[in-house]
Amino acid sequence: MSNLPTTFDKPVHIAVIGGTGLGQLEGYEPIAVVNPITPWGPPASPIKILSHNGTNIAFLARHGLHHQFAPHEVPNRANIASLRHIGVRCVIAFSAVGSLQEEIKPMDFVVPDQVIDRTKGIRPFTFFEGGVVGHVGFADPFDAGLAAVVKRCAESMEGDGVVLHEKGTVIVMEGPQFSTRAESHMYRSWGGSVINMSTLPEAKLAREAELSYQVIAMATDYDCWHSFEDVNVDMVIKCMHQNGKNAKRLVGAVLDQLSNIEHSDLVMAKQWEGYAQGGLKFMTKPEGRDSEAMKKVEYLFPGVWES
Ligand SMILES: CSC[C@H]1O[C@H](OP(=O)(O)O)[C@H](O)[C@@H]1O
Ligand SMILES: Nc1ncnc2[nH]cnc12
């Protein structure tokens, strides 16, 4: 991939996950590239460590370096576990989405606060199984503190009439085929704001891994409910060209905010610390725990079983 060092031993607490049309984050200085192998396999892409005004960030391409993983094939557990393992506690995830509402125009961004799961149960969706049971709350699937920081950075975006919408519900469908017209209308009747194929299980796994996580949805089309042309890949990619520039601007502004000392607890996800681990120890009694399953959890939470 490059001549960059393949180890990195300084702290990196913030990660950006890039999706369709955002396979890399240009304009940031690359300083290393690491490829941790997790108990759930390797992440979709090596993790690039980038530097921005003295802050290190990790960048991971959700669909792989060459966009080789379809939405249902993305190794979500390895992606989230590898980020946590290298020290990441705060994740900004980008996603190309279809708009389900007139006022969310292609090229607008949305900071969703809710999600509706329309995946079909074929994607591995938990770290806690096979002899270790854990349940985490998911009533509010994203991190309100991180969302507030992102919203404060709206002015960093450019383009005529481009808006950053401050809330919304993301429908996560299975794909890889786009929705039927009937489905698209149904999602609108449910109150869906935007639709994609990747925020779940990514957000659930981030919660299990005790990370602050916020998706930033970048509208590329009006799906197929609108009189505008039905969604197709060409449309998404063309729109992502412009969206990618705004994503980069927004990341820069968010990182500048997060580097302020007042946000250090947010960056370290103090609000989630121990949230999943406490439940794990409480649910499965020691005599029922499977040693392999425990080892996997230990990768996420070193020392979890000792206390
Ligand atoms: C090519 S359009 C469908 C594709 O785009 C979105 O990807 P991502 O969320 O990774 O930006 C959507 O979720 C689908 O995977
Ligand atoms: N209309 C759409 N449906 C699902 N995922 C998408 N990603 C971008 N546009 C989309």
TrEMBL record:
Please tell me one Gene Ontology term that the record gives under cellular component. Answer: cytosol
Pathway assigned in UniProt? Amino-acid biosynthesis; L-methionine biosynthesis via salvage pathway; S-methyl-5-thio-alpha-D-ribose 1-phosphate from S-methyl-5'-thioadenosine (phosphorylase route): step 1/1
Enzyme class label: transferase
Query: Record-annotated residues binding substrate?
Result: 197, 221-223
The similarity annotation says: Belongs to the PNP/MTAP phosphorylase family. MTAP subfamily.
**What does the UniProt record say this protein does?**
Catalyzes the reversible phosphorylation of S-methyl-5'-thioadenosine (MTA) to adenine and 5-methylthioribose-1-phosphate. Involved in the breakdown of MTA, a major by-product of polyamine biosynthesis. Responsible for the first step in the methionine salvage pathway after MTA has been generated from S-adenosylmethionine. Has broad substrate specificity with 6-aminopurine nucleosides as preferred substrates.
Q: Name the source's superkingdom.
A: Eukaryota
Primary place of residence? cytoplasm
Concerning HAMAP family, the annotation shows:
MTAP
Q: Which reaction is catalysed here? A: S-methyl-5'-thioadenosine + phosphate = 5-(methylsulfanyl)-alpha-D-ribose 1-phosphate + adenine
| Pfam families on file | PNP_UDP_1
Task: Tell me a GO biological process for this protein.
Answer: L-methionine salvage from methylthioadenosine
State one molecular function term (GO): S-methyl-5-thioadenosine phosphorylase activity
Keywords recorded for this protein, A-Z: Cytoplasm, Glycosyltransferase, Nucleus, Purine salvage, Transferase
EC number(s) reported in the record: 2.4.2.28
Which NCBIfam families does the record match to this protein?
A: MTAP (TIGR01694)
Enumerate the InterPro entries for this protein.
MTAP, Nucleoside_phosphorylase_d, Nucleoside_phosphorylase_sf
Question: Which amino acids does the record list as binding phosphate?
Answer: 20, 62-63, 95-96, 198
Residues the UniProt record annotates as site (Important for substrate specificity): 179, 233
Residues in Nucleoside phosphorylase domain copies: 14-255
This protein is called S-methyl-5'-thioadenosine phosphorylase
Q: Coiled-coil regions in this chain?
A: none
- Oligomer status and interactors: Homotrimer.
The record's subcellular location field reads: Cytoplasm; Nucleus
